[in-house]
Write a structure and sequence with these properties.
Blueprint lengths: L1 H37 L1 H5 L3 H27 L9 H10 L1 H28 L6 H26 L8 H33 L6 H20 L8 H5 L1 H27 L1
Helix pairs in contact: 3-5, 3-10, 5-6, 6-7, 7-8, 8-10
Amino acid sequence: MTSRGTGRRRCKAMLDCVSLEKFVNSLRHEDSVVKSVSNPMNAESDSHPRRAMSVTGGLCGILGVVLLCASFVFASGPPTNATPAELTQFGQEHHAGILIGAWLQSVAPVLIAVFAFVLVHLSGAASRVSGWLTFLGISTLMTVSMVEVTFYITAMSADPPGIALVSLKLVNAIQHLYFVVAAPAVFLPLSLILLRSSLLPAAFAYSAMALGVIFFVLGAAYMLTVTLPSAVTAVGAIQALWWLSAATALAIRGARALRVQST
């Protein structure tokens, strides 16, 4: 009886040890899951879908900048201080180029927005306030761009008389919104996201913050000017360089990771 009791106690102790080991392993698993959810860059940054998303998002950003630059090549601006008759003649002579440029300028921001969304997602900021603010900024930027393109198209109409001149005046007014609201609302929160992430080098975060501040300062400085000077509007080209550089860096990083994974 004593040997049987001792054997039972040994079996019970062994079962307790096994149960305790399973419990500890379950706690470790739950802890790893929590860490992966709270910081997706640690747990998922090397996964194939995220690498592919980096490449796809980067290519969207690159293509968006290329289309945006091409839109200005096709749609050259009318002469300065042109009369309504001269504007009508200019529209007739450059009809196809202006409409192609308007189409390109409509599509380009969508692709850049996709790239910005990918940056927010891969940085794990989609559920943070900075991510929401970036989404709001991109939506504002899209709205400003679409309205501007709309007035470029209406400027091509010959009826009613003078609509081309009115449309271009409205375009000049809308350009203020890009500097005061649209660009800062994108670059400032996005810079905060990139500062907390290792997705891109820190230089992109600091340069994005500088761009947001520069655009806002220029917009505030010229708030009493109806038509922004050409030198000010030319500064807008800097943001295209940032998008192109950031998209290229992300695409290269994702492509290298995919190449390493396949070897």
